[in-house]
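Quick one: structure for this chain?
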Amino acid sequence: MRSKSNGRMKLAVIVAMLMLLVAAACGEEAPEPTDPGAGATTGTDEPQFETLEEGTLSVGSCLDYRPFEFVKGGEETGFDVELIEEIANRLGVEVEWVRTNFDTIFTAVAGGQFDAVAAASTITDERLETVDFSDPYFNARQSLTVNTGETPDLQSTDDLGEGDTVGVQKGTTGQAWAKENLAPNGVQLKTFEGLPQAMTDLEGGAISGVINDEGSSLAEAAERSGLEVVEAIDTDEHYGFAFSKENPELTEAVNGALAEVISDGTWEEIFKKWFPDLPTPEEFQAS
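Got it. Here's what it folds into:
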């Protein structure tokens, strides 16, 4: 006949063994699988992020802003285009370009219409209320472009006043600068959906000048008769890529790739291709 104490001992051993098995199972919980095709990179040291479509980074841009982003021969090209495509390549995703109106581009990316904005977009406090920006990737200045055949004596914004009309692109910091600095002096502002339309009016003598980012104005003026950028206006502006605030992982991943592109000299190569006559800014030189 078995003793009660011996039975209790065996029961205790069985319970202890079961508890050890449960603890071991919990301690060896399998990691959650990643989905490498859903816009996420894999690897322990690689950034984890999501995009709207598997394996694709959809990028909103107006695509009419030379030399940053424009279409030539049916292909997207320009400084921003090459830079974001290099970043996407390092993140293991393809780029899909989405043509959109610059005036609504930030609310569009915030609303999930595409993953990112690459459109020579100045980082501002107002825009930061709607979107997140990457680290700066370009130093920008405003500028005044004139028609030297129509107004040869117009050499700076100090020469503008009553009776002059200046073209600006809707939704840009150039428009904001002109509204603050020129409108109080009696200068009329004419708003355009895109820079090419403003430059066409200037070329035809319909307006006195155009206030716009220096880099794109130089590119446009070089392609048009009689137009010249006569003044650079230092406004301490920097461009950044914009993202939805709901996707901070993507912003972080792009920042990491951007830092690599700058440090290994790729940024400077792209910059020299599109701005051969400008010195490389110190903060974007290879380390």
